[in-house]
């Protein structure tokens, strides 16, 4: 009989557990792997009440369906966030977090089309666009890229807070057309973000971009993929580092050194004090740092602040998959 999903425990128990998991990670045990992503995906699609998965400590445990769910998201950049503070998800990298499908916004297609046209036109005239073009032209020619998979670019809005998402989607098409010119053939464009709604899907389809449901962006990433992500609320870097390494990544710049950060206490609007993690939702880890050593990198400076701080990583050497052997993390 599998244990129930652990939810709490004494400080000593949590410290022991986090130490076990840290050692296991340092020894090279993958936190994220295709079989488990497929198993969880299957669980949510088939409607079964619970699923048993192997925890990071090697023991099986059970996740029970939450009747409110309609879509799941990977959760927690586990390794950087590992701490006695992580009482709520101490055993698995793959939390299932329950959310509503779609962004909750209900903009008309015509509004999104008009907004996109404006932001795309601004993007194509911008200095960051020229800088990105230059980097792509100088670094991608050596690679065989057949598809782009982007994570967490956000639902397309109208009005306030619309610019980043529109500009980032326009950048996907810039990447595709640059690669198509370099390689002389078509590149397929995919995006994964649980916040897309049906209007986003219609609009993106019209631009030749296909939405993949979480976790199929991760599952479809292969050694010919260009992965693109900007501040995603999911640990894209850690998941990709544990699975098939892509041809290139354009994602939030990886810190080359591990810096010590502290949790802090903050009083929120409700007057309660909460412990706040110093780590973002797509944190680096030793494995992510090791992975990017195998890639050349050029930082993309974005003065217009539509992307925060991105680096273009391109594979240095032919990967094992090109010789017929599946490439995954080698530590
Ligand atoms: C902080 S927003 C960043 C949006 C945009 N890239 C930007 O820079 O303004 C994080 C995004 O990650 C998305 N996200 C959350 N879970 C995700 C998942 N499992 N796969 C892909 N995207 C996810 C959220 O829906 C949200 O759109």
TrEMBL record:
Q: Which InterPro entries match?
A: SRR1-like
Q: What is this protein called?
A: SRR1-like domain-containing protein
Record-annotated SRR1-like domain positions: 133-285
């Amino acid at each position: 009989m599998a244990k129930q999903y652990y939810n709490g425990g004494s400080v000593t128990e949590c410290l022991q557990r986090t130490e076990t998991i840290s050692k296991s990670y340092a020894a090279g045990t993958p936190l994220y792997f295709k079989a488990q992503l497929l198993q969880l995906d299957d669980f949510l699609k088939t409607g079964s009440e619970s699923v048993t998965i192997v925890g990071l400590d090697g023991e099986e445990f059970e996740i029970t369906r939450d009747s409110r769910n309609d879509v799941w998201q990977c959760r927690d950049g586990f390794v950087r966030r590992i701490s006695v503070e992580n009482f709520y998800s101490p055993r698995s990298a793959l939390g299932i977090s329950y959310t509503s499908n779609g962004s909750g916004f209900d903009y008309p297609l015509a509004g999104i089309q008009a907004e996109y046209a404006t932001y795309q036109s601004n993007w194509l005239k911008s200095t960051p666009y020229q800088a990105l073009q230059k980097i792509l032209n100088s670094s991608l020619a050596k690679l065989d890229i057949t598809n782009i998979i982007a994570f967490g670019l956000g639902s397309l809005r109208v009005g306030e807070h619309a610019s980043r998402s529109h500009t980032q989607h326009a950048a996907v098409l810039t990447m595709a057309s640059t690669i198509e010119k370099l390689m002389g053939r078509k590149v397929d464009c995919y995006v994964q973000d649980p916040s897309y709604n049906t209007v986003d899907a219609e609009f993106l389809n019209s631009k030749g971009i296909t939405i993949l449901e979480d976790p199929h962006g991760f599952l479809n990433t292969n050694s010919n993929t260009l992965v693109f992500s900007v501040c995603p609320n999911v640990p894209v870097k850690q998941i990709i580092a544990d699975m098939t390494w892509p041809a290139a990544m354009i994602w939030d710049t990886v810190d080359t050194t591990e810096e010590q950060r502290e949790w802090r206490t903050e009083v929120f609007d409700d007057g309660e004090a909460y412990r706040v993690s110093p780590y973002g939702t797509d944190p680096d880890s030793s494995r992510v740092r090791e992975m990017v050593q195998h890639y050349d990198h050029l930082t993309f400076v974005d003065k217009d602040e539509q992307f925060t701080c991105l680096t273009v990583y391109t594979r240095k050497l032919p990967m094992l998959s090109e010789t017929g052997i599946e490439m995954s993390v080698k530590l």
